[in-house]
Amino acid sequence: MLTIGKRAIAFITFLLLIVACTTASPTTVPNVETVSTPVAPTLEQPTAILMPTQAPTTVPIPIDTKAPSPTPLPLGGSGEIVFGSNRDGDFPNIYLLTTSDGNVTRLTLGDSNTFPGPFSPNGSQLLFTGFGLTNSFVGLMNADGTDPVDLSGRPTVDEGFPTWSPDGQQIAFTSRLDGNNEIYIMNADGTNIKRITNNHSDDFAPAWSPDGSQIAFVSDRDNLTGVNNLYLMNVDGSGIVRLTNGNEIDYGPAWSPDGKQIAFRADIDGNGDIFSIHADGSGRVNLTNDPASDWAPAWSPDGSSIAFQTNRDGNWEIYVMHSDGSAPTNLTLNPAEDQMPYWKPVLISTN
After folding, report:
1. pTM of this prediction?
2. I need a labelling partner for 341 at 20 to 30 A (CA). Which of 51, 64, 105, 235 fits?
3. What is d(CA 278, CA 86) in angstroms, rounded to the nearest whole number?
4. For residue 51, what is the DSSP state?
5. Hey, is 16 helix, strand or coil?
6. How far is CA 324 from CA 127, 261, 289, in A?
7. How many CA atoms within 13 Å lie on the side-chain side of 311?
8. 77 φ, ψ (degrees, to nearest 5)
9. What letter would DSSP give residue 43?
10. How far apart are CA 153 and CA 320, in angstroms?
């Protein structure tokens, strides 16, 4: 099974260790939905008005000096966040939150653990980690939750932590195919699997850089088992650089949209905080600095905000904060366990 650290909290532990009851995985790859272009309404010619034969009494026309309210921009440039929650049952499923009105839509209806991964770069599909009878697997579905596919197709191997290449053509993920946690790359349809790390320790949780040239990941390769630090490598597995040091436990690297920073979770004193660091390992900043546990950072598409999960209210909730750590705000406000947020990309029209 995937082993990711002795001190990991519950959601990371059962993400790739606990196997749920049942699963259902269609074999067809989901189709990308076509987005239709709305048709502009037609303006009707107003009915002619007959002029009166006598001039009416002049009535002053009130002048509205108040400027119209601007239309609020979507939070973080997108306004939609996918996350995992057990709010409708014992097993975590995947939900979509619209931040403008707080509306939550359930995307999966499984009776086993299902955890969200990131949206495809064009927003049409969604990666996830699912659980079968004996293993975890990398899954893919349409952004609305339809047509789930088991991309792994290896019922005796645990796999998870998927991430997209910036062009949407490849997926990096963690697998125990060769006995321990290593990082692999495959095509977006699950073919052409290639191993890119090779170490007796555990390498996992890859995050592809926005320019497609590097992958951040965590590993205990230079530490005691389960004491993970943050690393960076080229996409072929070469040029590995260690970005963090010390007796801390790092998880969940996430690149800023401009590729200059990496947000991650670090457990230094028993409670995890969200940190940011420059891609060269400098400029480390504690963004949350809270006595609660903070996990799973996710940058907004415009880079202005970071979503994350925290138990500062007594249970796991999805929060959002400015990219400098200020103004943390609870988005989910639910007694269930809400975890692992990912922002939906902003789709830019080419017309």
Report:
1. 0.81
2. 235
3. 35
4. P
5. helix
6. 28, 12, 12
7. 13
8. 90, -5
9. P
10. 35
3-state secondary structure of 29: coil
Bridge partner list, 309? 295, 318
Q: Identity (one letter) of the amino acid at 236?
A: D
CA distance 108 to 146: 8
Homologous superfamily of domain range 10-21+75-343: TolB, C-terminal domain (2.120.10.30)
**pLDDT at res. 145:** 96
Please tell me the distance from the alpha carbon of residue 85 to that of residue 100, in angstroms, as a whole number. Answer: 20
Q: Cα separations (Å) of 63 from 45, 66, 70, 222, 344?
A: 26, 9, 19, 72, 42
pLDDT in tens, 40-84: 333 333 333 333 334 434 444 444 444 444 456 688 888 999 999
- Please state the length of the chain: 351
User: Could you say which DSSP state residue 123 is in?
Assistant: S
Cβ neighbourhood burial of 238 (10 Å; 0-12, 13-18, 19+): exposed
Given a contact cutoff of 8 angstroms between Cβ atoms, the answer to whether 141 and 124 are in contact is: no
In contact, 218 and 253? CB cutoff 8 Å = yes
